[in-house]
Write a structure and sequence with these properties.
By secondary structure, this protein is α/β, with parallel strands linked by helices. It contains nine helices and 14 strands. The strands form four sheets. Strands 5-2-1-12-9-8-7-6 form an eight-stranded parallel beta sheet.
């Protein structure tokens, strides 16, 4: 029998801009963890100390904890000075400490040449160097960086994510697997193809699905092989987060939106897939 346990988190700004409304809905859905990307229209990186205190007060009132900061670090041009993102990471570290988490979601930079997906290969080594610098800083700050695959970013395909992750053996960098984002760059058998390469590096999972012909879907309704991924994680003894990022109403460049009803539907569909694959939820 597997010793795997799964805890559901959610990107609250997909529910509403107001933080108390985000947390009220999470309480209704029996989700005790928030992936904090934004509140009141303010991205987590731009929050003031007063904003962070307000966040903490709301979290305490609703008995919700922060699973990770959904930061925009790495959604920046690869050729920009990396010290800009180091400074952003330092600020996020301060916020994370106040909110009781050490997990910071990051990305692997916009390549200079976006004329074709194949052109991204030439930027892998520079991306590795930049991410290594961020991982070194995370080690100093005792943070865990969650590197998410994303379309339009150097680390978009299974192959490039594998190259990046194997080149940075720093325990302060782990992989945040997003099935939908892989589908959106044409990965047709992402779990079958990706598991042998990426499972040793995977420490976090985002839950949204997508169709190869286009369109973001709830878990199990697309081509992201979400059920297969959960079954593999379960068999491997995964103990960690499944963070709902449904994008069911709006799938934007820097964020998405689902509304309260969309988040409720996304949670329902995820729990159905979890039940089908024998995954045990820990509240």
């Amino acid at each position: 029998m597997s010793n795997a346990t799964f805890t559901i988190s959610a990107f609250g700004d997909e529910i509403a801009a107001d933080l108390d409304e985000q947390l009220r809905v999470l309480n209704e859905l029996r989700i005790g963890w928030l992936e904090l990307r934004g509140a009141w229209g303010v991205n987590v990186l731009k929050m003031s100390d007063a904003d962070v205190e307000r966040v903490q007060a709301s979290l305490t009132a609703h008995n919700v904890r922060v699973s990770a900061l959904g930061s925009p670090v790495g959604k920046s041009p690869l050729l920009d000075p990396i010290e800009n993102e180091v400074a952003n990471l330092q600020r996020l570290g301060q916020i994370a400490k106040k909110l009781g988490t050490r997990n910071i979601r990051i990305f692997s930079f916009y390549p200079p040449d976006t004329s074709s997906n194949g052109a991204y290969d030439q930027y892998v080594e520079q991306t590795i160097a930049s991410l290594s610098r961020l991982a070194e800083e995370a080690e100093k700050l005792d943070l865990l960086l969650l590197l998410e695959n994303e379309k339009g970013i150097v680390g978009d395909t299974v192959a490039r994510c594998h190259r990046i992750l194997t080149a940075i053996p720093n325990p302060h960098l782990t992989f945040a697997w997003d099935p939908a984002n892989f589908v959106q760059v044409g990965e047709a058998n992402v779990t079958a193809d990706g598991w042998p390469l990426l499972s040793p590096h995977t420490g976090y999972v985002h839950i949204k699905d997508a169709k190869l012909e286009g369109g973001v879907k709830a878990a199990g309704e697309g081509d992201g092989q979400v059920a297969e991924l959960l079954a593999r994680l379960n068999a491997a003894g995964y103990q960690g987060m499944l963070a709902l990022e449904p994008h069911l109403t709006v799938a934007g460049h820097s964020s998405g939106f689902s509304g309260p009803e969309g988040m409720a539907y996304a949670a329902q569909k995820l729990r159905e897939v979890m039940a089908q694959t024998g995954c045990i939820e820990v509240l």
